Amino acid sequence: MNPRPAVTLVGPKDGTWLSFNGIPVQILAHGTQTNGTYTLSRGTVPPDGGAPPHVHSFDEGFYIVRGELTFTAGHRVITARAGAFINIRGGTAHATRNATNSDVEVVVIAAPAGFDGFQQAVGEPAPGPDGPFPPAPADIRERMRQASAAFGIDMQPAAALFEAEPTITFRQPGEGERFACVGDVYTFLATSEHTGGRYAIWHALVYPGGGPPPHVHTREEEAFFILRGELAAYDHDQRVGAGPGSLIVLPKNSLHRFKNETEEPVEMLILIAPGGGEEMFRQFGRPWPTLDRPPLPDREEIARLIALAPDFGVELHLPAH
């Protein structure tokens, strides 16, 4: 019998560091780590920095951690501030710009994976989080154009694409369907229907003592990006502690659980790829209009979870009574 895959912790200073179009970028999860379902990176966009007009075949999601970023998608212009999320469907022309006087920190999801290859093909390697990060070379646009086709990217989108209605999902901070699940609060940012099934992502507020029982996802890759607080994640009985800026990569078929073992709430993003498994939380959780702490799960909620889990390819490893 093959051993179960291991859970991986990528710390705030780990991963692959690049200067990508002059922007410091940290690739936290490569497609080789996610069965090609997604890649996830974190970037710091300086004032007047951003991405030039382009269009690609994959979905791209942006969560604003700090600052304010302006998106032009089709004929719409959207300003996203800290806590906002936008998913841009493949085929929608877009560009980004930091029009403020402060750096913007953003987490970027590309699904399926491949964008990480483009970032490495075009970017300049950096030794770590402290750089140095070389400025964009004078021929960066030409380098991007030459490399782009191999990764499903068009760096010269037709002007008509910026006159069209974009296919996007945009959430202001705090917006989205919200559910109480096993004593925690999940706010959906983008679900399978928004991403063509490629991924789903939600904001999780895990209160002290909160977290699910040990379980296995047999259908999707999963990841947790920590925004605030300290989370304990368990791979079988092996514990890893993750703080802000860390990513926990949970491969399909890994046996894992997580718990908030501190006295303060933990905020994190939960990503699954492909999407679809989020529907389980809709069905066993309860609609929850606020971010207030919900009561601990009762027997009825636990019974719904046990009954639903097999339908979503989730194996629960509950303690024997």
What do these coordinates show?
With 321 residues, this protein is mainly beta. A hairpin with a 2-residue loop joins β15 and β16.
Short description:
With 321 residues, the chain is mainly beta.
Q: State the shape.
A: globular
* CATH homologous superfamily caption of the largest domain: Jelly Rolls
Q: Report the strand count.
A: 26
Task: List unreliable stretches of 5+ residues.
Answer: none
Percent range of helical residues: 10-25%
Total of domains: 2
Topology:
Blueprint (H helix, E strand, L loop, with lengths): L7 E3 L5 E5 L2 E7 L9 E7 L9 E2 L2 E8 L1 E6 L2 E6 L3 E4 L5 E4 L6 E8 L3 H8 L1 E2 L14 H9 L4 E2 L13 E4 L6 E4 L2 E7 L1 H4 L4 E7 L8 E3 L3 E8 L2 E5 L2 E5 L4 E4 L4 E5 L6 E8 L4 H7 L1 E2 L11 H10 L5 E3 L5
Antiparallel strand pairs: 1-22, 2-3, 2-12, 3-4, 4-11, 5-13, 6-9, 6-11, 7-8, 7-10, 9-14, 15-16, 15-25, 16-17, 17-24, 18-23, 18-26, 19-22, 19-24, 20-21, 20-23
Helix pairs in contact: 4-5
Keywords:
eight-stranded antiparallel beta sheet, 2 domains, 5 helices, 26 strands, 321 residues, Jelly Rolls, mainly beta, 12% helix
